[in-house]
Design goal:
Layout lengths: L1 H9 L7 H20 L4 H19 L7 H33 L54 H12 L5 H51 L6 H19 L4 H21 L7 H16 L12 E2 L10 E5 L8 H14 L4 E6 L6 E6 L21 H8 L5 E6 L5 E5 L7 E5 L5 H14 L3 E5 L15 E4 L5 H24 L8 E5 L2 H15 L10 H12 L5 E6 L19 E5 L3 H8 L14 E6 L4 E5 L11 H23 L20 H4 L67 H10 L6 H12 L10 E2 L5 E2 L2 H9 L15 H5 L1
Parallel strand pairs: 7-11, 7-12, 8-9, 8-10, 10-11
Antiparallel strand pairs: 1-2, 2-4, 3-4, 5-6, 12-13, 13-14, 15-16
Helix pairs in contact: 3-4, 7-8, 9-10, 12-17, 13-14, 13-15
Length: about 850
């Protein structure tokens, strides 16, 4: 029961006091009625209460009589207190309004920003330039696209690795374990290094992405005083809302989400609106202006914007620099050059100025110097000219009696050259792979169309192979029969002489063409010289007369009687052709696949050298007048599916058939030949192929047979115990002995050679036709004793202390230096001796 009573009492409210309730209601009703009916409403009631309070205060302070002076002071004090309270309230409200309005909370404004517009700092020192011109040293290096070759291990490292791999001795297991551990450590170190390197690259990439954003935010925050007031007020309002949201537990999650979204938006905006670096006008303008101002004699306080205008980007297309010139600027060449030099030395790029002194303001406008015009591409001849092309065949059919089609020039126009008058003889100097053989074969095609007789000397038996066996063509290509080649040249000289005689007598004035090919003229000169030296008779000149008596008359007189030489040279030296100057006799030259030194040696330094092109058929035509023409000569096209030898055999077969067809169609004339050309000697197989010994062969040296393949026979230097001749002479070692063909009978004992002094050697050599004096021998011996390696032989010192030699030693020594029998020798040494 007690509990129920307590529960009932706990939920039972006390009845309100009726007197109190009625009194409060009456007072409220009365106050509302007075505020509604009195003029001024609540303010009137407050003023009345204030007056009553003053009166009451006066009575409380003493007496029944009111002291109006004290009452006035109390009234004024009350109003002061009231004004102070109201003023504090107003200032508090105004501070809140200024805070959330973005205004400065203390001090004056630091910028000229307004509520909606950003401003610039006031009374702040000039900030340094944000961007500086990069120097050459700080410029990034060029990146090479060529991958460096991997360094190969040294032979020592390879040998060590091979030894470690193949070692199986004591301690092999421990060594194997140690090597494996070292390799594992090396691999792990490499992996850790690569991992750290990848982390570093990642951090650099993150830094490269975030650094501009952080920099932008820092710059933006530093410029807080320059923000518009609206932006600053909004920022303060958002921060206050964020603090309130974080303080109230119910709003905390929503506030964090909104703050994260706001942060993302700020980062995106910072990345999007990064401040642009200052332009070139802001970087270079303040630096160049003091110098320019001084050079133009302007006051230092002149504004730069009125005299100098720089583009934002100096490297942009169409960028212009405008410099306003004072009236005192006279515009002389020196002043213009100084102004231009100043701009070019201080500003990047190269500038050219255009000065104008007409109008109100003289100006100098600078623009980028135009780049030099690239050289026009050098026209090239066509890549190939097919000999079977219908256009080529049409050109060949339309040629005149003395015209030759050589190929297409750089404009793809046909080049036709006359083989007559000053260009009656042609010289070719074409390197290996230059298409020399194909060009000679193409010339032979046109010679047959002109019903000409073709004579060819080819010591190497290469270029004129397709012409073998063709009627009206005589080929001499056996290098072992130089007499045939010499006889042919002498026969051609006789034909030229006979034709000129007939022309002089008036018997005949028109002669059919006679063409002579001198292929490999330098090699031909060598073999003719050897043949002449071997068969030279007593009293004959030292130099080979074939070039003076045979070739030179053909070159000088052949053009008048339709005899022409097409010579191929590797080296155009007059000394190689018996001292006869052949270069002036070939005013028309054809070069191909040449070298720079070869061009200078043949053409001289006065002729400009065209670009060198190692291509088959790409040649250069040069005349003595300085005309240089690049051409592409025709040739039989090759099949890419065939090898080089197969293509060559195919081309030779086609050309041989073509030659036969041309001979049948055009024929040839043997008039004014008087006699047939000398028939070539039958070609004999070399001694080795015929199975002959070096001693039994007709071309072998004189001497007794040798037994077996001794060191002397094999060419090795051997000195017999009873011989004074050191080694084997060169003339004794030309052929090698065929095994089984040496003499097997008893050999005679070798006789001791006869030794001679210097004076005796001179007498013996002169008796044999050598013009060698004892003084010359002593001079060569003296030079050998002084250490000069001139090849003078070492003799045998006898018991009397004199050095003696065999006659063969001295003969061989002087023959190697060009001193031959019956050759006159001038006093002193020869040119070759001086060169030794």
């Amino acid at each position: 029961m007690h509990i129920l009573a307590a529960a009932t009492a706990a939920h039972t409210q006390t009845q309100p006091n009726q007197a109190t309730t009625d009194g409060g209601r009456w007072f409220a009703d009365a106050f509302n009625w007075l505020s509604a009916h009195l003029p001024g409403g609540n303010l009137t009631i407050l003023a009345f209460i204030f007056a009553v309070a003053i009166v009451a205060d006066g009575k409380r302070n003493g007496g029944t009589k009111t002291d109006w002076k004290k009452a006035d002071q109390a009234f004024i004090g009350f109003f002061k207190k009231l004004y102070g309270g109201v003023r504090g309230l107003v200032l508090a409200v105004w501070a809140v309004i200024r805070f959330y309005g973005g205004y400065e909370m203390r001090g004056e404004a630091r910028s000229d920003a307004t509520f909606w517009r950003a401003g610039t700092p006031r009374d702040q020192p000039a900030q340094p330039e944000a961007v500086q011109m990069a120097t050459v040293a700080a410029a990034p290096p060029k990146v090479s696209l060529v991958k460096p070759k991997r360094r190969q291990p040294s032979p020592w490292a390879r040998n060590t690795a091979a030894w470690l791999t193949g070692y199986r001795g004591r301690g092999a297991d421990f060594l194997d374990w140690a090597v494996r551990a070292a390799l594992w450590c090396a691999r792990m170190t490499g992996r850790v290094w690569r991992f750290l390197k990848a982390v570093w690259r990642f951090l650099r990439a993150v830094y490269g992405f975030t650094a501009p954003i952080v920099t932008t935010l820092a710059r933006t925050w530093r410029a807080w005083h320059c923000w518009p007031y609206a932006a600053r007020g909004l920022t303060r309002l958002v921060l206050t809302a964020a603090l309130v949201g974080l303080a109230v537990p119910a709003w905390r999650v929503l506030t964090i989400v909104l703050l994260v979204l706001a942060l993302v938006a700020v980062l995106v905006a910072a990345h999007r609106f990064q401040p642009k670096p200052p332009g070139d006008d802001a970087v270079y303008g303040p630096k160049i202006w003091p110098i320019l101002c001084n050079d133009l004699d302007l006051p230092p306080d002149e504004p730069r914007q009125q005299w100098l205008l720089l583009p934002e980007k100096l490297g942009a297309d169409g960028a212009r620099i405008v410099v306003r010139l004072p009236w005192t600027f006279r515009g002389s060449e020196l002043e213009r050059a100084q102004l231009t030099e100043l701009l070019n030395s201080r500003l990047p790029g190269e500038w050219v100025g255009r000065f104008s002194f007409r109008g109100e303001h003289p100006t100098a406008v600078y623009t980028h110097k135009p780049p030099p015009k690239p050289p026009a591409p050098t026209p090239e001849p066509p890549a190939m000219v097919d000999i079977w092309d219908p256009k080529v065949q049409e050109i060949l059919a339309s040629l005149g009696p003395d015209e030759f089609y050589l190929g297409q020039d750089t404009f793809n126009q046909p080049i036709i050259q006359k083989l007559s008058d000053e260009q009656a003889h042609w010289a070719l100097s074409v390197g290996s792979g230059g298409g020399k053989s194909a060009f000679l074969q193409f010339l032979a095609v046109q010679m047959m169309m002109k019903r000409g007789i073709i004579l060819g000397i080819d010591p190497k038996s290469v270029s004129l192979i397709p012409l073998l066996g063709i009627q009206g063509v005589h080929i001499y290509d056996n290098p072992r029969a130089p007499k045939d080649m010499r006889a042919l040249l002498l026969w051609v000289a006789e034909v030229v002489d006979a034709r000129n005689y007939e022309k002089k007598q008036g018997t005949r004035t028109d002669f059919p063409p006679l063409y002579v090919f001198l292929e490999e003229a330098n090699h031909l000169a060598d073999i003719l010289k050897e043949e002449y030296t071997a068969t030279k008779e007593s009293g004959a000149p030292a130099g080979d007369p074939i070039w003076r008596d045979g070739v030179a008359p053909i070159l000088r007189l052949g053009r008048e009687v339709n005899v022409h030489i097409i010579a191929v040279f590797q080296d155009f030296k007059d000394t190689q052709f018996g001292g006869v100057s052949l270069v002036p006799l070939f005013p028309f030259k054809i070069l191909g696949s040449y070298r720079e030194q070869q061009w200078k040696r043949i053409m001289g330094a006065s002729f400009p050298m065209p670009p060198i092109q190692k291509k088959a058929g790409r040649m250069v035509l040069v005349t003595d007048t300085g005309d240089v023409t690049r051409i592409q000569t025709p040739y039989v096209p090759w099949d890419d599916e065939l090898t080089k030898d197969e293509n060559q055999k195919k081309a030779y077969k086609l050309l041989a058939a073509y030659y036969e067809e041309l001979r049948e169609e055009h024929g040839y004339s043997t008039e004014a030949l008087y006699t047939a050309p000398p028939a070539p000697s039958p070609e004999v197989e070399p001694a080795l192929l015929r199975g002959l010994s070096r001693d039994t062969a007709a071309e072998g040296p004189n001497g007794g047979s040798e037994g077996g393949l001794s060191d002397e026979t094999a060419g090795r230097s051997v000195t017999h115990p009873d011989s004074v001749t050191p080694g084997v002479t060169g003339s004794r070692d030309r052929l090698r002995l065929i095994p089984g063909q040496a003499a097997t009978g008893p050999q005679e004992a070798p006789q001791a050679p006869v030794l001679y002094t210097v004076a005796e050697l001179a007498r013996e050599l002169q008796a044999r036709g050598y013009a060698i004096e004892a003084g010359l021998i002593r001079q060569h011996k003296s030079r050998r004793d002084k250490g000069v390696n001139n090849g003078f032989p070492i003799g045998v010192v006898g018991s009397d202390g004199k050095e003696k030699w065999t006659l063969e030693q001295l003969t061989y020594f002087y023959e190697q230096r060009g001193i031959e029998r019956n050759a006159p020798q001038e006093e002193g040494e020869s040119e070759q001796d001086n060169a030794i």
